[in-house]
Amino acid sequence: MDIIYKKILFATDGSYHANNAAEQVVEFQKKWNCKVVIFHSIKHHKIPMGLFPNESLPIEIYHNIEDLSKKAGEQLLNKTKEIFSKAGLSVKTRLIEDEEPEVYIRRIVEEENFDLVVLGSKGKHSKLKEIILGTVSKKVVKSAPCDVLLVR
What we know:
This protein has a single domain, classed as HUPs (Rossmann fold), CATH 3.40.50. Helix content is 47%, strand content 18%. The chain contains five helices and five strands. Helix 3 runs parallel beside helix 5. The longest helix is centred in the middle third of the chain and has 28 residues. The protein is globular and about 55 Å long.
């Protein structure tokens, strides 16, 4: 039996593993002619306002950092989209600003009926953050209401 996925949600952070995942999704889209949505969440990269109450950043600096995060996220999405364009494929991209990636995945998979989520097995984060908070991939595997493919 050959499994065919019709709608794939691909999470990217620009890491080595995410780039390998992009190549895998390209092959799936070629084979199955499926719809692909690529997203990147900047939520877990944001500096929370008031994190350092005694040394708060001026609001202008906070907004500048937020703007830079958005621009970097858009550049990442465009770079990833280019991988698909070079293969003659069309994809949609989304920059997610206000949801952690695992929360967005869980919600959007149900709302838009994705049948596969693809992401790199390890993203761009520190070892300490991974130990304390866990990885996005672990959280997605535990909570996604559809198939999940982790790519190394």
